[in-house]
Amino acid sequence: MEYEAVIGLETHVQLKTRSKMWCGCANAFGAEPNTNVCPICLGFPGVLPVANEEALRLTILAGLLLNCDIPPSAKFDRKNYFYPDVPKNYQITQYDGPSARRGRVDFEFDGAVRRVRLTRAHLEEDVGKNFHFERNSGVDFNRAGVPLLEIVSEPDITGADMAYEYLTALKDILIHGGVSDCDMEKGMVRCDVNVSVRPKGSAELGAKIEIKNMNSFSGVRRALEYEVPRQIAVLKAGGALSQSTRRWDDAAGVTGEMRSKEHAHDYRYFPEPDLMPFSPTEKWLEAVSARVVELPLARKQRFMRDYQLPAGDAEVFKNEVALGDYFEPLAKKSSNPKAVANWVINNLRAKMSGAAENGTLMTFADLKFQSGAILELIGLIEAKTISSSAAQAVFAETFESGRSPGAIVQERGLAQVSDSAAIEKLCDQVVASHPGPANDFRSGKAAALNFLKGQVMKLSKGKANPAVVGAILEQKLKRP
């Protein structure tokens, strides 16, 4: 019997705010342990939470970016559990009244655009972080109370690679939208996996097994690559699977059981008595909606459609938003957007990267030349005023000095020679000086022509039009 995996993901993302969710403590990574804390985020008796409005805005913004329905009202609840990293012994979250429902993420996978539906996106607070030493353990509460968005998918994912691509697409959306920096090295994104297996073609779900708190997308992929075959092996051996929670051991590459059968009623959810339901006004929602940006996949598809770019170029402009924003106004003015893309990606980006490697961080505002210089340079090439190799030298000087390509070409005498009579004289000299390669070409060795063309270009000091040189040489060498 063949089996198939059914996978849903719960992704926890720290929101891009300066302060925590319920207090004024800094939302900052890297501080000394337990220094960004106060009576509110430490759960002292008698303190009251006050909602961070920017966190509320970012939650709704994320919901809009993820194509969610935004309900007219959302409420906060207490999720009660007793762990050492939860100072209040409960977590303020959203249970049955989330801020966003029924969304979707579209992304490219396996040669097609795939869709994963979202159940909800709700706002909650993060917990502290446990540290285990040789003889004792400690808790750093700096992270406790940081605003956290939990994005819950439907079980639409069918394998480890698809899960990885979904998470990557989700991260790109949130970064581009300014919702989160999604820096995984700083713990800003963590993921829980719900996975089951069932006979292929069956509509009934198998026993759900949750794998907790993975802090890398590659870890999610590796965990699924281990867990799905493990579950299938149990069933094929005649065993049974039951709902449980497992932990991923990244070093060993295995999952291990933590506890069995965990349900919502185990947490004793009840409404948060210190916070009113959140009912945004139309004016407030309009202000948040104004912050919505074009989604990465939509941007890639638009660049391919509007500027006839290949997928590789559009992918670059999707991932590097500032580079794409620099390219687009030029492409709108050009009859050859592909040429513009080549110069922006292969030349401008390379020069800026080189400057960064030398310790000079550059933005597009730091460029010494006007963006129209790239169009001018392309025009010189298309008019055959300069060769492609000369254009490289011209661009390098434009980048360093800010001077226009036309001025550089005129000053350095780089204009290409296309005068057939002048080039023919040079071709005659080369053929006379190199009878061997000339005869090789006549006898069918096509590569010999490149040598002869190179000699003509050398005589002309690079100024001869290579296309004219090739045509004249071929004409001469084919004569009886």
Question: Which terms would index this structure?
Answer:
single chain, 480 residues, alpha+beta, Arc Repressor Mutant, subunit A, 3 domains, eight-stranded mixed beta sheet, three-stranded antiparallel beta sheet, 15 helices, 13 strands, 40% helix, 19% strand
Radius of gyration: 31 Å
| Shape estimate | elongated
Order of H and E elements: EHEEEEEEEHEEHEEEHHHHHHHHHHHH
Low-confidence stretches: none
Beta-strand share of residues: 15-25%
Arithmetic mean of pLDDT: 92
Strand order of the largest sheet: 4-5-8-1-9-10-11-12
Would you mind describing this structure in some detail?
This protein is of the alpha+beta class. It has three domains: about 5-290, no CATH class; about 295-410, no CATH class; about 420-475, Arc Repressor Mutant, subunit A, CATH 1.10.10. About 40% of the residues lie in helices and about 20% in strands. The chain has 15 helices and 13 strands. The strands form three sheets. An eight-stranded mixed β-sheet has the order 4-5-8-1-9-10-11-12. It has a three-stranded antiparallel β-sheet with strand order 3-2-13, with no helix packed on it. A two-stranded antiparallel sheet has the order 6-7. A hairpin with a 4-residue loop joins strand 11 (about 245-250) and strand 12. Helix 9 packs antiparallel against helix 10, helix 12 (about 420-435) packs across helix 15 (about 465-475) and helix 14 packs across helix 15. The longest helix is centred in the last third of the chain and has 21 residues, at about 335-355.
